[in-house]
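yo

u said u wanted the structure for the complex thing, so here. seqs first:
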Amino acid sequence: MKNPKKLIEVATGREVADLVFKNANVVNVFTGEILPADVAVSDGWIAGVGQYSGKQEIDCTDKYLCPGFIDAHLHIESTMVLPAELVRMVLPSGTTTMIVDPHEIVNVCGAQGMQFMLNASENLPCNLYFMLPSSVPATPFETAGADFTAADMAPFVGHPRVLGLGEVMCFTDVVGGGDVILEKLAQLSPRPVDGHAPGLTGKSLQAYAAAGVKTEHEGTTFAEALEKARAGLAILVREGSAAHNLAAIVGGLVDNDLPTNRFMFCTDDKHLDDIARDGHIRWNVKLAIELGMKPVNAIRMASWNAAVEYGLADVGAIAPGYKADIVLLSSLKQVEIDAVYKDGIEARQALQNIPAFDAEKAQPRVMQSVKAPKVTAEMLALPVNGKTDVIDMVPYQLVTNHLREEVPTQNGLFVPNETYTKLCVVERHGKNGNLVVAPLKGYGIVGGALATSVAHDSHNIIAAGDNDADIAKAINQLSKIGGGYVLVKNGAIAGQVPLPVAGLMSTAPATEVERATHKIIKKASAMGIPYYVDPFISLSFLALPVIPSIRLTDKGLFNVDTFELI
Amino acid sequence: MKNPKKLIEVATGREVADLVFKNANVVNVFTGEILPADVAVSDGWIAGVGQYSGKQEIDCTDKYLCPGFIDAHLHIESTMVLPAELVRMVLPSGTTTMIVDPHEIVNVCGAQGMQFMLNASENLPCNLYFMLPSSVPATPFETAGADFTAADMAPFVGHPRVLGLGEVMCFTDVVGGGDVILEKLAQLSPRPVDGHAPGLTGKSLQAYAAAGVKTEHEGTTFAEALEKARAGLAILVREGSAAHNLAAIVGGLVDNDLPTNRFMFCTDDKHLDDIARDGHIRWNVKLAIELGMKPVNAIRMASWNAAVEYGLADVGAIAPGYKADIVLLSSLKQVEIDAVYKDGIEARQALQNIPAFDAEKAQPRVMQSVKAPKVTAEMLALPVNGKTDVIDMVPYQLVTNHLREEVPTQNGLFVPNETYTKLCVVERHGKNGNLVVAPLKGYGIVGGALATSVAHDSHNIIAAGDNDADIAKAINQLSKIGGGYVLVKNGAIAGQVPLPVAGLMSTAPATEVERATHKIIKKASAMGIPYYVDPFISLSFLALPVIPSIRLTDKGLFNVDTFELI
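structre next:
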């Protein structure tokens, strides 16, 4: 808790600071300058910038102090670890604030998922703020675990760490004036509202902005980002594991010398291995500087700009009255991190105080979320007659082609081989036990199957294999471990990563999860899957009925182009 | 009320707009560009920017559209007219939003003054937001009409048009860690808090910022403004009737090519005649452009920057979902105003709908605020013996010199002449009837007296004259008319401007008040007062115990340098 009286005493010099960063080059986000100064910290808050002495002093000669970085939009579930474990990964690279959209867990567990994430992010050495998922269920074309209506949101609206409405993915509903989403927008207005409207342009974009959407992170070209910025949307420049939008957008900003104050950074979805290698928002800053952006502007995008947009009063600047969330850089241009301080405590020390996860305290609905029927090989039979619908994966892209082809059969039933894989989706929220099957091309698995409970947006079980016995075994094993990743090879469990939290997140340490994931992917890849296809993540997107052209949900094959079940 | 569903219909083109500004050059505050477009308006809100048709269309070829201007800080009482009348004056020059600090009326009437201002500013064609006066009473060295404590503020904190805490003038209390002001800061935190700390620098400034103060408008040099900006305070660049800070601060911004997004405009105190001649915030924009600032940046300072700082969600930009508060310029560089639209309604038409002031509905405490004792000439006797304390006015400045001089006497009593005026302050809040007298040099009135109930900050009656009979007559007449300006010449009332609202504001139309004020000043000036001294406003500041070196409050002579009563 901030104690202004104490800060005043320290700022005036009447009391000695706990900690002083001496002789630093301080990035001033307000004036865009870098100024030599000491920074005095008291009880985790910045008391003053000037000339100060402290009980502890850190010599920062030739180093740079900048505000802790803010990730303006991410889904923690995509990292497959709990908030505490993600904090362990991102804090050392300078991220001290994250604005989280728990869209995945809420799709599985509804309000209990929201509450779980709030609980699981308390008292961490990182400021975790939340947006309320706006689009749950995402579509009526699959069975989600829960609804999250305006009424469900109501109890969370007043929570001090809830900022606004999460990414409004149902942009066609907004542009169409749909009542369900407008009710949610009205409930949160005039708080921050995140957008998600890839390619939206012209009058539809104007309508989307008029509805009250305030940010966008789906711009992939500079022209798209610029049109959205002109319409009043703050632009979250995304650089994650799958989406790499930074070069286009920052490049455009630099080339056109446009003001940057309505631009900020996010990762959206960034996996543990990428975070471990490059760091988190630090990577966005570094890339922006490499593209020719002034370092101070890149740092403002990573701090102050996001704080302003999301109404965060006490982060994003190194100035009196702000949290002592500080990144110490040994190189400004390379964004080389010397140390990170959260609330004035050095990261390694701050991370030691994180309590272990207590499954006993978690909501049962969150910890026992996989309620799929027991699957037998016989249930996976797919009768075909002549040409049939085939999902064709496109290398390096999330889009798929919709093929009509003849597939191998025996006794009128589809028989997978090294070209045609059997793809299967099983409803796993205990609602109807839907089970559907379709042929998949471009995946190539031979001699086994894998299954995962991570499958956007409804996170039913999705499995793929070249024989029914192994597919059934993988699905049943997944149910047994409460969700996660399972790999079956020649009738035996060859690997698994349990994700018992909503079937989406592990309770293990991040380093363990990273290692286990790496191992199972390596094993799966050796079974014929092309090197450019991530065996599990590619499956996770094959059920997502918003990316063209054809998907498989628990309700059947879905034609995204005509937006209807086949 | 905004109707997003309707806006969506109009934005998409499914419904026709009420009003479209066709072929305009639109100032885009987000990207800093000027872009050709139509702007579609529906029910007073902007639905879309692009290509639109409307029931009514206004051709804007070769003209510029920019967001309505925001005055980020002003005291309406200084204009001596009611909010509605000020709106009549400022709207035609483009001001569509004002952030008002009703410090003066609250010093006289406390919470009832606050409530009065909220009532009197309802349903006007201008967005009037309020800051809760933080420093009432301003000092213990004079008798104010009311306290306005944290408890008094509480009922107003949730009001939709109350934004935060008004200018924290008691900066020495803040830096000293005083509990009374810290309680008020805590109550409003983390909302906007305006500062007022002329000359505050170094560690004291850091302490002031650490306490939670967020803006400052008292910077008179660029160096002062820059230090404050670096400390995190948003800078309100003031250009009013008395204070002219724009050239210094904007000049510095231009010369140093600093980012402008933490800078905005205010008038603080600007009188009707100056508004009538130059316009309101429009004048700040024009001066800034003349100083070499990019027009788009000057307009951003006058709109978006202030909206962001004060958390105003729906003003400050021409974009979908924002209020149709629009200024149409025929010249961008000259800021020549072609027309102004408030909520999509042209200013002249919008101003016709203002209801007349209804004194019956006003709080009695506001309408009968002058409760001074009846004053006789005998009560004004000032015994002196040898050298005595004299207030010496300094030409063109608000500061005074503290002299010790012999003054003319008769029978041991001070006798004013053309050099030594008799200055008198009478407590008028009905609390103690204090009456004090002192010699004043540099005012020069001959053959009469004037009195006013406008006397910062406690607004007791202050009077000055060269004979006791006329002084007493002026004071008593002031009581009779419930406050205002009174001029007595050779024993007869020579002029008066009644200000019955708290003794500070007239109920008459702005043009009448301006005319009457001009007339009485002209008459008073003809009575020996130097041309460079405003007869009434100069008196208004002679009781203000925060400007060096010597003042007269109802408790006696006050030495500002030692901060004690003499």
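The longest helix of chain A spans residues 510-525. Chain A has a mean pLDDT of 96.
cya
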